[in-house]
Structure formats: structure tokens, C-alpha cells
């Protein structure tokens, strides 16, 4: 009963407790404190820190293009699965473009490849004609080299000057080179390699159009990237035209499977505490909510980087935590002691004998005010002590 009354008085103010204990306690106790008045707990308050609560994941969906916004389910639906369509921009025009692309892909192999084959046959026929002409010119040039008199028969004297032997040899070499080039082109066209390359070119062109269309699709459609709840940010009016510019924030998607609390650790002494022993407590509508340490983060904002401890809460506390999102709340950082200890207010210890405290510190004042007890941990407002003979 004495412990209960003292804890209630402590909640009303330490001045009251100090006045009662130091002014009215029996003088026979001297400077020793009555240990039976203090509570026993396994949690010791280490600090009070402003914390930010956030869901496991959060994503702001923006319009990728300018146009008329259309939400698929209006404002009725809140929960979405990954891959679902929230809506889009100018959906009717986009649907028409999608149909045209499908038709083009269906026709392209039936139209372009036969055209390529017809062109190949035309080129082969032309090359064959060129070969026949080159063969005739080569034979004639060879005859001129073998029989110079034959040139005079073909071109009577006075009509043209007889070519020199060197010129005829040069002409013959050029004709042979042209014939070789044409022969190589005909070999390539008649091989399967030509058709393979034509098909590959057509497929690449189709793929390029598909990639361009998919890029357009990402700009136009609002696709949900993960499971979560959607909050519409744009003042959408159902049944009316809702024009949006590119880059405008349309909706916020949140994953509430977990809720984190980020606490900045500015006091270097708090960094010396084993992280696995830390708990964070925030006050909800129905009482305190306790999260366990998860990980450390380094965040850079204005000024020097900050060390952040991230805490995670049990799944059955998510609904109670949701009203605390979107802002800063007061958090209490507790040390989870290895065993229950007696918690004694610091000011009471110091008030028993300030001289001992100045000379011997917290361990000395605990030994002086609480004989037989030893200091276990030092908290924000209290110290945790244990019976030294139990250790």
C-alpha cells in the first residue's frame, strides 16, 4: 500500500515527494531511504525522444503525362494488390493505340517478309542480266586483245581510235571485279542468311515499337507496385472531367503490414546501451504501445548526419498505431533489464546527502542511502538498484 501511494504522489510532482520524505519521515531513519516505498520493474526509462511513425513501405504515385485522369474504381476502393490498375491518363486514346499496335504486329510478318522476298527475286533477276552483259563485254574485250585487227572490223577506221593494250587490260580487270561483286551478292541473296537477317530486322523493329509503347504505358497507367492501401491526393470529382498536368501527385500507397518508429539518438550515452535491450514506447488511444529495436540507420538532412534507431511494433498493434502516423509523437526509450530491479528517483538519492553524491557519484550515493544495495543501471529520472548479496 505504501508503494502504491508513493507512486501516485510521484506522478503528481517530485517536489511533493521530496517534501514528504525529507520533512516528515521519522528522524530515526537518518539519511537512509525506505526501500519498501519504491516500485520494482524490469523496464528503466532512458530518454524521451520525438519519433516519427511510418508504414513498412510508402510510395507516391504521380501522373506521367498531361491529360484527363480516370480512376478505375473511383474513390470507393482503398485496398489494392500489386499490379492492379488504379487508373490512368487519357485511357480511351491509349486503348486505341494498344489495339493499333496489336494489329500492326499481327500484319507485319505477313506483309513485310513477303515484300522482302519479292525484292530479293527482283534483285536476283537484275543481277543475272548484269552478269550476262558483263560476260559479253569481257568476251569482246578479250577478242580485241587477242586480235587487234578485229577491233578495226567492229569499228571501221575513222570512226574511233584503236585502244591501247594497257587500256584494254584495265577494262578487262574492271569487268572481272564487277562480275565478282555481283556474284557475291547473288550468293548472299540465294543463301538462307539473307532471310534470317530480314526476319531479325523485322523482329527488332517490332521490339523497338513494343518498348516505346511500354514506356508510354508506364506514363499513362497508374499501376500499384505493391500490396497496400491507397489515399487519393488529387481532388478527384466522379462524373466530371479531371485534367491533371504531368508530374502531379495523384495518390499515396502505403503498406501497413508493419509500422516502424524512427527515433533520433542524439545522446552519445544512449549509443552505449546494447540495442537488443532497448524498447520504444508511444502512447496510443487505449494505452502504451511497445516496439522492439530492429535496425540502425544513418540519415542525412540539414546539418550533420543523424543516427536513427528504428523500432518495429507487433502486428496486433498496427490499428492502434495508425492514428499516430503523419507527424511527430513523443516516444519513451526504455532499457529492458535482465531481471526486475528497484527503481529509485534520482532527486531523492541526491537529496539524502549531496556531499556524498558530489564526492562518490551515483554508486556512492546508492550505497549511502540504500545500505546493502548496488547500482545496476542509470536511467533518465531513476536508478535501478539490486540487493548486492543476491549477486
Features of the shown structure:
single chain, 391 residues, alpha+beta, Elongation Factor Tu (Ef-tu), domain 3, OB fold (Dihydrolipoamide Acetyltransferase, E2P), 6-stranded antiparallel barrel, 4-stranded antiparallel sheet, 9 helices, 30% strand, elongated
CATH-defined topology of the largest domain = Elongation Factor Tu (Ef-tu), domain 3
The shape, in one word, is elongated
CATH superfamily placement of the largest domain: Efflux pump adaptor protein, beta barrel domain
What value does the average pLDDT take? Answer: 83
Query: What's the number of structural domains?
Result: 3
User: Strand-and-helix sequence, N→C?
Assistant: HHEEEEHHHHEEEEEEEHEHHEE
Reading off the top of the CATH hierarchy, the class of the largest domain is best stated as Mainly Beta
CATH architecture of the largest domain: Beta Barrel
In terms of per-residue confidence, which ranges show pLDDT below 50 for 5 or more consecutive residues? 1-19, 24-30
Structural class: alpha+beta
User: How many angstroms separate the termini?
Assistant: 28 Å
Helical fraction equals: 40-55%
Tell me the total number of β-strands.
Answer: 14
User: How is the largest sheet built, in terms of strand order?
Assistant: 1-8-11-10-9-12
**Proportion of beta-strand residues:** 25-35%
